[in-house]
Amino acid sequence: MSENDVVTRTFRALVEGADRKFARVRDVPAYGRLPNQHYFHKVFKAYMRLWKYQQENRSKLVGAGLNRWEIGEIASRIGQLYFGQYMRTSEARFLIEAYVFYEAILSRNYFDGSAGSRGFGKKDIGVRFKELRFYARFLLVSLILNRTETVQLLAERFKSLVDNCKVNFRDTNFKEWRLVVQEIARFMKVDTAFMNVRPLRYSTLFDSNPASLPYVTRFHAKRVLKFQDALLTSYHRNEVKFAELTLDTFRMLQCLEWEPSGSFYQKRPVEPKENGVFIEHSGASVASGVIDLNLAADMTDPSLPPNPRKAVIYRPSVTHLIAVMATTCEELPLDSIMLVYLSASGKVDQSNTSQVYNSGGSQKSSKNKVPLQDQNKFLPESRINNKGQSSGYYDQYLWFGPRGNGGLNNLYPGDIIPFTRSPLFLVIDSDNSHAFKAGFTWSGKRRDSCSASFTYETSIQKSS
Question: What is residue 192's predicted lDDT score, i.e. its pLDDT?
Fold first, then answer.
């Protein structure tokens, strides 16, 4: 067996091993403390070993038939792993590491057939789908990092790629990808107003020193609460979103983070050359194919506290939302407070319900829908007073659902009461938020822990 054969077989074995480990962590929920956190380190180690091996043996592997898109797929997986870790931990260094790998893929045209033809030739449909997924993931990372120039260039390139796919692969339906193009265009249009103003994140250029920020109000004589966990979700009809990040949760996510202030974050323009190849600004060498894996040291200000951990949930059912809140509260340290941001429509009048019930569905299914005036029949007796009326906790609600299912889609103020046993900072972004404020103001008179539920004026220090 020749040396090239040994290198190729070793490389393929490393790819298969890394892919098996990746499959085990790909769909792990981005909330809750993970008992097998050590396995994520194994996945990272496997891919870093694979990446280093292909760098050291690049010429032999290419000579044996290694395609450039296969190198891009490895780098894309590493970027996906880093982004997943950011969503689980909210550590900015993971987000920027993902950006570094994605930018390297783009600047080196790993998924393109030919730099001169902008990669729009007829190639394998499977590779083209990998390229589409890469663009969608890179767009999401760039959005969160507020790299607006990169987002605009990626959106244009992504749209051209989808249009080219429709022409070259007429037997394949690209409807879902066209919807993604529409999503990013709509998101950019709505968010344009924030492009030329100060960042939503805490920034050392505009805000006071972290040490001067007041602690959250003391609810106990010797207890100072620390902000370490947050749950963000929204559910509106036709809301602006990209992927599973809505505009509401996108802005809240940034409001709860520190602005990266390392030299990496100096926003330099990203411009395409005449042949369509993007100029690289990540510090990686195009010629050598080496990506700087030690860039994290120059990403963030070490004097800033870590970001609070955030669970961002896209359009959850009420039961799923309550389950995530329960998991987070169960794991919340005794000296910590959890922020819950809920953005959804509320019960103002009957029009909301009539729109929902008239928005579609068969006549047969409509018979199973529960009118609003009859929903109190299904409340437990403990929630109904002796006059047959429901208590204040179950009169009004937030709507988490597309249509139908009666009260199954309703989140009532009473549903959140069990979680007020721990300090809770609740933000309701709704036309019905007054119902929650009134309910928890009354409950706060009974228990000190509940009084933390609605403290709008309190400044929370993001510290560990």
Answer: 72
CB 259 within 8 A of CB 199: yes
Q: What is the CA radius of gyration of the chain?
A: 25
Contact between 292 and 284 under an 8 Å Cβ cutoff? The reply is: yes
CA dist., res. 153 & res. 271, Å (int): 8
| Residue 297, helix vs strand vs coil | helix
Q: Residue 121's closest CA among 177, 77, 64, 69?
A: 69
- Determine the 3-state secondary structure of 202 from DSSP: strand
What is the bridge-based pairing of β-strands 398-399 and 245-246? Answer: unpaired
Quote the tokens at residue 48.
């870093």
Q: Are 431 and 196 in contact (CB under 8 A)?
A: no
C-alpha to C-alpha distances, 193 to 149, 190, 196, 198, nearest whole angstrom? 15, 7, 7, 11
Alpha carbon dihedral 20, 25, 28, 31, in 10-degree steps, equals 180
Distance of CA 377 to the CA centre of its chain: 38
pLDDT at 33: 67
Q: Measure the CA angle with vertex 250, ends 278 and 192; round to 5°.
A: 60
Q: pLDDT higher for 289 or 52? A: 52
- The residues that bridge with 168 in the sheet, in sequence order, are none
Kindly report which listed range (20-24, 206-210, 306-310) carries the lowest average pLDDT score.
206-210
The 3-class secondary structure across 100-167, one letter per residue, is: HHHHHHHHCCCCCCCCCCCCCCCCCHHHHHHHHHHHHHHHHHHHHCCCHHHHHHHHHHHHHHHHHHHH
Q: What is the DSSP string of 212-234?
A: GSPPPPPSBTTB--EEEEEEEEE
Tokens of residue 380, six digits: 């437990």
| pLDDT value of residue 104 | 93
Cross-strand partners of 235: 344
Mean pLDDT of 61-76: 92
- Cβ burial of 38 (10 Å; 0-12, 13-18, 19+) is exposed
- For residues 69 and 111, give the distance between their C-alpha atoms in angstroms, rounded to a whole number: 5
Measured distance CA(17)–CA(47) in Å, rounded: 9
Q: Which domains does the chain have, with CATH numbers?
A: 3-114+122-192 (no CATH), 198-209+216-261+296-349+396-442 (3.40.50)
Decide which of 415 and 369 is more confident.
Answer: 415
